[in-house]
Queue: 2 jobs
Job 1
Amino acid sequence: MPEEKKLSGRVALVTGAAKRLGRVVALRLAQEGADVAVHYGKSAKEAGELVGQIAKLGRRAAAFPAELTDISAIRKLVADVVAHFGRLDILVNSAANFLETKFAETSEVTWDASLDTNLKAAFFCAQAAAPHLAKSGRGVIINFADIGGLLGWREFLPHSISKAGIIMLTRVLAKELAPRVRVNALAPGTITMPGDPPEWEEEFKLKAPLARSGRPEEIADAVMYLLTAEFVTGHVLVIDGGRTL
């Protein structure tokens, strides 16, 4: 008799799942037995391709478009996911932007774009999902911060503040939603993906004590740890090869 997978019977919504780390995480959750709601903003083609990949694994998947700076669109997204799959057990808030802006040139538009996409959207996704996650009995939220929220980066001030906000949001939500829903966060850093400029990896080797860049699969491993570590909540797991040291 085949061994039951870790996430069998569970439904996950992954925001920003069409590309990069969100895509890697969504695929890993499917490999571990979850059915996956693939959220996307503008990447409809990539989202459709991911749905096809997940279907080949024998899992249910569907793509859901939503503009996450629109609270009504977030509420509709969660409602549509629950209507389609019948439940919601996992929310992964991975959708984000990464906007460079010099201090003196930071505009209200850039500020709002960073905070609204990276922080406000994560809160309102959690708010909309919370009743369904609580009903699950095994509800979990994973938020994506990054080491910019710990170190603070020059010329990425709104971004750094938005990710620092994700860290505090995670801690407060963990208290607010306990004991029925666990809430944790990841803070990746020095991670490279296929297609990234080779000089990034060389730079990361110099900045990380482990002398290499991280792999996307290692982020997916960390997500799986937080999904299955049932006595961990309010934690921010830093995955950066030691760079923040």
Note: The radius of gyration is 17 Å.
Job 2
Amino acid sequence: MTLPFFEVEKLTKNFGGLKAVDQVSFQVGRHEMIGLIGPNGAGKTTLLRLISGILKPSSGIVKFKGEDITQSKTNDRVNKGIATTFQIVKPFRHLPVYQNVMVSCLSSRAKKRGDWVKTVNVRASDALEFCGIADLALEPASVLSHGDLKRLELARAIATEPELLLLDEPFGGLNPAESKLIARSLKRLHKGGRFGKLHSDGPAMIIVEH
């Protein structure tokens, strides 16, 4: 019997008397890209925070590649292959853009899986090139537009070499041109395009949107 690549079983989160997530169960295949839709307040972001380990569930189970990771810390989940982009981007605002991505390149997972013939600087630049903001590499993150911050957030996530990518409203607040750029990067990444070359497979994705 083949174990599901990723699954949640009856995942529930209570905040006092408020039930934000109520016994949610689903599976994601290794090569799937799925959408999670719903209005404001439906619990979409809370669910992603449960999956990424930022929040602990009141009950239920999270499994990744057959392993129960319900109680794993966020950094442990990143090193297992789960990365997240957030609706509200919080970069290191006074660091240059490329140094924001270098932090991700220094994760244990990235060190194991990355091409270390290249320096960390070059790998960070490759991630920025993939997301279309290499020209802003030396700028402080504080000067980036909302659209460029979204692309920086994606670059930071993919630099950890994820197998499952969680995206919380990646198109939120973007104009049509910016949305098209993000969508193009996500499609290419999902098909295996990575840092200027093709891999055998890209990450599975869960995309939260309205």
Note: Residues 90-164+173-203 form a domain with the Rossmann fold fold (CATH 3.40.50.300).
